[in-house]
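Page 47, continued from p. 46.
Same chain as before, 143 aa.
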Amino acid sequence: MKTILLSISLMFTATFLSAQNTSITNSEGTTITVSVPCKSNEGNVLLGLYTEDTFLKAAPNMSVSAEIVDGKATATFENVPVGTYGISLFQDKNNNKQMDFDAGRMPLEPYGVSNNVMSYGPPQWSDAKFEVTDQPISMEIRM
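Result:
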């Protein structure tokens, strides 16, 4: 159990310490718009877009932050090239740009992943991946 929680902790910390757009940029790509229902308006939602090589192992290929308004955050990844991607996100309630954990290493902030995969332990690439074509994508990710 500690290994699983440590993996989740490292995943979110590595993901959002470098919360800025990097690597995947292409003026001819499409957009991915993500809406996230939130139980509170505290903080922001930080989202990371990954390829298979970076999923939960490295900084995201692209990242965005979304303000929470009336219990909902909406973020857009722009100029995303055709390919296979996964998204992870969390609600950064205290705006410290990292996921917080209690003494037992349980997450204190809500989190989610594309395809709304919720399991005990870190999400798997095979469950979270989705295809991006030249058409815009809209999705909702629950926390």
